[in-house]
Amino acid sequence: MQEQISSEEKIITVQNLKKTFGQLTVLKDISFSVHKGHVLGIIGPSGSGKSTLLRCICQLEKADAGTITICGDPLMQDGVYASKITQRKIALNVGLVFQNFNLFPHFSVLKNITEAQRIVLKKTKEEAEETAFELLKKMNLSDKAGCYPCQLSGGQQQRVSIARALALKPQVLFFDEPTSALDPELTGEILSVIRELAQEKMTMVVVTHEMSFARDTSDYLIFMDGGVIVEQGDPRSVINNPQEERTKEFLRRFNS
Questions:
Q1: Cβ pair 46, 225 in contact under 8 A
Q2: Against a cut of 0.90, is the pTM above it?
Q3: What are φ and ψ of residue 53, in 5° steps?
Q4: Which is nearest to 162 in space by CA: 125, 189, 126, 127?
Q5: Quick check: helix, strand or coil at residue 157?
Q6: Where are the beta strands (DSSP E) in 109-242?
Q7: Contact assessment for residue 40 and residue 222, using Cβ atoms and an 8 Å cutoff
Q8: How far apart are CA 250 and CA 227, in angstroms?
Q9: Residue 100: its pLDDT value, please?
Q10: pLDDT means over runs of 10, the chain (256 residues)
């Protein structure tokens, strides 16, 4: 399926990626691609390496071997990292939304969204605030600009986190279990935001435990366990008709 799409349309290519922590190998020979405007869903049990994979691509962890290419620029080629200048360039093309929001508690909502724009993109205060207010409107948070994170619900904080990531205009947006810290009532509003971004053809990689969301929103789905990709393919096929016994075992608890 992936090979039928030209390499020019690939935003991310990961080949033979490996990551160890001491004697523990967390990622073992991981390979996949993400195409422009597509959503890659990643599912799997806790400890399967999903978050570590995202952190390696987003430069929060150093991989030990393999190749990572983002927007045509090699971040890592056969285990050798690109120059610091190239790493910084690549970092501007990716955004990461954490499961625990990671907002600055002493900054207002507005400042949480404008600060990185001013420091990283060198925008003026007026330019940064214009972008911030546009995104707050998009997130249905126009009235929360002056609030602090502690005054917001978990769902509202996560929407601010998404707005902050989008403010830097990344080419691809990563979500690491974006609803895992939320009450079930608030999960729907975050999934709705991600669905809207998918409809706008935002390229995304979403690690999630929401199986129906992964099935219905992803263009391609990966099931990871034990640091390897156990099964991958069309989301409906993987979730509704898994071929591997480990995938069937994992999904059984969601379908019971």
A1: no
A2: yes
A3: -60, -50
A4: 189
A5: helix
A6: 172-176, 203-207, 220-225, 228-233
A7: yes
A8: 15
A9: 85
A10: 49 97 94 96 95 95 96 95 96 92 94 95 96 96 96 94 96 94 86 95 95 94 96 96 95 77
Phi-psi region of 124 (alpha: psi -120 to 50; beta: other; left: phi over 0): beta
Number of H helices, E strands in the chain: 9, 11
Count of other CB atoms within 10 angstroms of residue 107: 14
- How far apart, in whole angstroms, are the C-alpha atoms of residue 109 and residue 124? 17
CA 180 to chain centre: 14
Bridge partners (DSSP) listed for residue 35: 10
What type of residue is 252? R
Residue keyed to tokens 């890592």? 76
**223, 238 contact by CB (below 8 A):** yes
Q: Determine the pLDDT at residue 205.
A: 97
d(CA 201, CA 214): 16
Of the CA atoms within 13 Å of residue 228, those in its CB half-sphere come to 8
Q: Which pLDDT does position 255 carry in this prediction?
A: 67
pLDDT at residue number 185: 80
Question: How far, in Å, CA of 64 to CA of 61, rounded?
Answer: 10
Burial class (CB in 10 A: 0-12, 13-18, 19+), 256: exposed
The pair of structure tokens assigned to 153 is: 């619900």
Sign, CA torsion 104/58/89/158: negative
